[in-house]
Q: What sequence folds into this?
């Protein structure tokens, strides 16, 4: 028997054949990513978050966190390692 998670994984892998990969830059990265995704009718946002030092955590807002709380797209987080 094939379980539903296997079917979902298979569907996801098959849909990746149409995937495109872009590097987005801008002064406000979350806004630039949202604008790009919206303009291209993206169906999934894939992010690779990285770890921040203690000082970075104190003074810099996480791009990943900002996107997770404001995007309307499904988000797939891939580990850095």
A:
């Amino acid at each position: 028997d094939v379980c539903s998670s296997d079917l979902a994984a298979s569907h996801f892998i098959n849909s990746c054949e149409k995937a495109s990969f872009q590097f987005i830059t801008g002064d406000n990265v979350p806004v630039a990513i949202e604008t790009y995704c919206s303009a291209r009718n993206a169906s999934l946002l894939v992010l690779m978050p990285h770890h921040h030092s203690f000082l970075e955590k104190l003074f810099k807002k996480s791009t990943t966190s900002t996107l997770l709380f404001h995007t309307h797209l499904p988000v797939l987080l891939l580990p850095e390692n």
